[in-house]
Specification:
The protein has 207 residues and is of the alpha/beta class. It has a single domain, classed as Rossmann fold. 33% of the residues lie in helices and 25% in strands. It contains 7 helices and 9 strands; from the N terminus they run ββααβαβαβαβαβαββ. Strands 5-4-3-6-7-9-8 form a 7-stranded mixed beta sheet, with helices on both faces. α4 links the parallel β4 and β5. The longest helix has 13 residues. The structure holds S-adenosylmethionine. S-adenosylmethionine (SAM) binds next to α2.
Length: 207
């Protein structure tokens, strides 16, 4: 039974995934104990773009997916639940992980977590990854260079596919411009249909 506060909805279901709202009692309880400080205090909409992308295009079979800047981890949870992937969620802020674990539990999947920043993900870690994903992780100017270095290390480590979603903020646009000059990169204008129409950009490198 889904707890309700008055008549207000306390969760969203889309792409086969459950997302609890801030007013949900479990989220309220977590907020008293865990305070993410780098905008990981809620779920961000670009994750739905990744879910829509993988629903339409699929994932390689039994892929190891690493979600960087995972926050509550909904995109990775989708990959585990609906695409059978093995998923690692990576975030610089360990305060996000209780929210990720809560959502992994209610969605009945297991997700590993790693407390690291973009620069902490070495080639040695990345060599076991098939698909690198991220949503809403390039919102400050000083995030672009660490992300650029991370994606370059991922390409060198033979990660097969990188997909990063964003509403299209200027630092992300610059990241796209940099990789569009490299072979195999695409910037896709993408619209997710659920839980409401959400439009944004996907930087896709590899296949
Ligand atoms: C806007 S939130 C997006 C969270 C999640 N991807 C989503 O779509 O709901 C940005 C996330 O990136 C994380 N983050 C910020 N800088 C980071 C860095 N240098 N390395 C790894 N994670 C970082 C934050 O802690 C936060 O969880």
């Amino acid at each position: 039974m889904i707890p309700m506060s008055g008549s207000a909805k306390t969760e969203t279901r889309a792409y086969g995934i459950r997302l609890l709202h801030s007013r949900h009692p479990e989220i309220r309880r977590h907020k008293r104990l865990n305070t993410p400080v780098v905008h990981g205090n809620r779920h961000w909409a670009s994750s739905w773009l990744l879910m829509d992308y993988f629903k339409r295009r699929g994932l390689p079979r039994k892929a190891h997916v690493m979600e960087v800047g995972c926050g509550w981890g909904l995109a990775g949870i989708y990959c585990a639940k609906k695409q059978g992937a093995t998923v690692t969620g990576v975030d610089i802020d360990a305060e996000v992980f209780p929210y990720l674990r809560l959502h992994a539990d209610i969605n009945k999947v297991e997700i590993s977590v790693m407390n690291k920043g973009f620069d902490g993900l070495t080639g040695r870690v990345l060599k076991d990854v098939d698909v690198l994903i991220g949503a809403d992780i390039c919102f400050w100017d000083d995030m672009m260079d660490p992300l650029k270095r991370l994606v370059l290390r991922a390409i060198r480590a033979r990660v097969r596919l990188v997909v990063i979603a964003d509403p299209g903020r200027p630092p992300f646009q610059r990241l796209c411009e940099y990789f569009l000059e490299k072979r195999g990169a695409e910037a896709l204008d993408w619209t997710a249909v659920r839980p409401r129409p959400i439009r944004g950009l996907l930087l896709k490198i590899g296949a």
